[in-house]
Amino acid sequence: MKSYRLLAMLLAGLCLGMPLQAGAQAARARSTAGVDLQARLKEVERDPKLLEAALKTGRAVAGVCDYCHGVGGNSPTPDVPNLASQIPVYNLEQLRQYAAGERKDTFMEGMIKVMNADEKVGMVLFYARQKVATKPPGNPILVAKGKDLYKKACQSCHGESGHGDDELARIAGQQPVYLNRALKRYRTGTGVRLDAAMAKSIKPMSDADIDALVAYMMSME
Ligand code: HEC
Ligand code: HEC
Questions:
Q1: How many CB atoms lie within 10 A of CB 159?
Q2: Distance between CA atoms of 84 and 99, rounded to whole angstroms?
Q3: Which of 52, 61, 137, 173 is within CB 3.0–4.6 Å of 132 for a Cys-Cys bond?
Q4: Left, alpha or beta for 164 (phi > 0: left; psi -120 to 50: alpha)?
């Protein structure tokens, strides 16, 4: 992954149409500062004209993200998350967390600095409208164990389908290495990714339980 991060960064600079000087980056970051992204999302969703423009912007932004997240947000690699069908409110909240240093990933933190508010809103709306590709079935024993654990510990929030809701993340069909890493980050609570509800649910789970949960979640359509 790391080896192509620089290339992706350059691509990002070119495709988002901004010069790579630090000054220009700072100006773009300022144009996002103070914008309530969730309020802007609601405003855009309510107005068909704004929505059409946002989807166009989102598609253009996605051209940069495709490099890692895959065409239409279906990631080609198991350690990079799908963005296809992801819940807009959740995705925007993750962008806020990266920007605020509450969720840590050096590359994504940098990537977000070069996006303005409407590019962020357009991107989440565009990806929400893309379909998640079906995965080949996993090991049936592991999937059955994962289903059982999911019903007991996860379904109350994430729902039977795992498709998410107005705010909660979609987890169905998500990439396995990414899921495994995310769950362990919540469990260890070192600050790379923190969430009280998730920490409480995942603390009792062993590594083997997490393997089973991941096998089940990636097999959910
Ligand atoms: C160089 C590869 C790369 C590129 C290019 C890239 N990303 Fe990412 N992205 C990642 C990785 C890896 C993660 C997972 C990081 C983590 O575990 O926190 C991620 C995570 C995310 C997440 C969080 C997803 C979730 O389910 O919580 C969002 C949202 C996101 N990226 C949006 C974007 C957008 C928008 C772009 C384009 C403007 C983009 N990314 C470009 C590699 C990339
Ligand atoms: C009390 C509600 C609740 C329960 C129970 C719960 N979750 Fe979550 N889950 C959340 C919330 C809220 C988030 C978003 C947290 C954040 O912003 O990082 C989340 C995020 C996640 C993510 C990250 C999604 C992504 O794209 O990165 C995964 C994976 C996940 N949950 C899996 C599980 C599993 C597996 C269980 C059961 C062991 C579980 N959750 C139980 C509320 C819950």
A1: 15
A2: 21
A3: 173
A4: left
Residue type for position 193: R
Question: What number does the ligand 1 atom closest to the CA of 111 have?
Answer: 38
Q: What token pair was written down for 47?
A: 């107005």
Rounded CA separation 5/91 (Å): 21
* pLDDT tens-digit profile, the chain (221 residues): 444 455 555 555 544 544 344 555 555 544 566 789 999 999 999 999 999 999 999 999 999 999 999 999 999 999 999 999 999 999 999 999 999 999 999 999 999 989 999 999 999 999 999 999 988 888 999 999 999 999 999 999 999 999 999 999 999 999 999 999 999 999 999 999 999 999 999 999 999 999 999 999 999 99
Q: How far apart are CA 18 and CA 116, in angstroms?
A: 11
In this structure, which ligand is nearest to the CA of 91? 1
Q: Are 81 and 178 in contact (CB under 8 A)?
A: yes
Cα–Cα dist 30/25, whole Å = 9
Which residue is listed with tokens 């089973």? 212
Domains of the chain: 2-128 (1.10.760.10), 140-219 (1.10.760.10)
CB-ligand 1 contact for 90 (6 Å cutoff): no
Q: Are 94 and 135 in contact (CB under 8 A)?
A: no
Q: Tell the residue number behind the tokens 């069908």, with chain if given.
A: 85
Task: Count the residues in the chain.
Answer: 221
Decide whether any atom of ligand 1 lies within 6 Å of the 9 Cβ.
no
